[in-house]
Amino acid sequence: MLSATFPFFRISGVEVRLHFTFVILVALLVLSTRPEAWTHLLLATGIFASVLLHELAHAYVARRFKIRTLDIIMYFLGGVARLERQPGLREDLLIAAAGPAANLLLAAAFHFLHSANPTVAHLDDLRQANLLLAFFNLLPALPLDGGRILRSLLSFRMPELRAARLTSIAGQGIALSLAAFSLWQSQWLFLAAAGFLFLTARKEYEAQRSAVLMSGALVREAMIERFETLDHGDTLRYAAEILLTSAQQDFPVLHGSQVVGLLTRDELVEALSQHGPDAYVAGAMDRDFLALPPDSSLPAHFALLAQNDFRALILSDGRLIGLLTLDKINEFLVLRSVGLRRELA
Asked: pTM of the prediction?
């Protein structure tokens, strides 16, 4: 997700990033030769600010629960505030409700401004836009705020996984209804939103299922203990030979007993094409790798792992003892789903 975004600015310590779809939309408005394009751009700016305030409301309430917001990503259809960890039931309920509440307050503010200044352009449009944002986000479909609110409320009365499953089914039903309405009214933007909701409803359920299965797990339970390492003075040719003769795709790089980097398969292939097989591993490795302690909570690091493509080196007192990858985490979750747990020494 982050690879399709770029940083825009920071506010209250939270980085706001723009998705390429949002940039394309703004560029089309700016480059348009139609006279009303600049008027539309002004309205789009107001809607952008409204969506941003919606996401900042999520971030503010999350901060009250000591949950850090990693960043806010702005899409052409809305925004997403990414949190460092999954909130608890009560936390998630209040964090989710904060966004639509912000839009309702903005709608009320624009209503009073329009009443006092009826000739000012777009004040009533912004009122209607904020009402639409609040209504749409309150639909009980994940990943919308209404879906998160429904999941939290159901989870107070039933197991979390069952609540997530019922919310996912409800979300897909709403997406199909919205798609039918969009086709009937030829509202293609709503059709795109319906497609997004349908596809993400199942993914949200799978994410919740993973979170439940991962609950209480330690990093060492999912790490690889038998793996190949590279020396910083090895050539790319040597690294490529190990890549071909093993199933491993990420290689810790050592200088003596000290970990100095991580070389991934993609970095290896790119370095081979640019510098040739006789170049050294040290010039291609990533020196800014993620290092985790073995006895820390795996779910607590999940957001951080996602930022690092689910790759981490496991260090104990500065000594390399394990490797964590997405494939291994998935295998760990599969085994947990059938009741198997790793025996720890």
From this structure: 0.69
Whole-Å CA distances, 174 to 1, 80, 153, 162, 230: 25, 20, 18, 18, 52
Query: For the packed helices 89-116 and 145-155, what is the interaxial angle rounded to 10 degrees?
Result: 140
DSSP string, 88-139: -HHHHHHHHHHHHHHHHHHHHHHHHHHHH-TTSTTHHHHHHHHHHHHHHHTS
Q: Rounded to an integer, what distance in angstroms lies between the CA atom of residue 91 and that of residue 285?
A: 40
Q: Report the chain's C-alpha Rg in angstroms.
A: 24
The per-residue pLDDT for 345 is 44
Q: Are 96 and 61 in contact (CB under 8 A)?
A: no
CA 169/CA 142 separation, integer angstroms? 9
CB 123 within 8 A of CB 96: no
Q: Return the residue matching tokens 């919740």.
A: 208
Nearest Cα to Cα of residue 16 among 58, 64, 44, 61: 58
3-state secondary structure of 201: helix
The answer to whether the CB of 194 falls within 8 A of the CB of 175 is yes
Distance of CA 94 to the CA centre of its chain: 19
What is 261-313 written as a DSSP string? EEEEHHHHHHHHHHH-TTSBGGGTSBSS--EE-TTSBTGGGHHHHHHTTT-EE
**Statement: residue 33 has pLDDT above 70:** no
Burial class for 254, CB neighbours closer than 10 Å (0-12, 13-18, 19+): middle
pLDDT at 160: 80
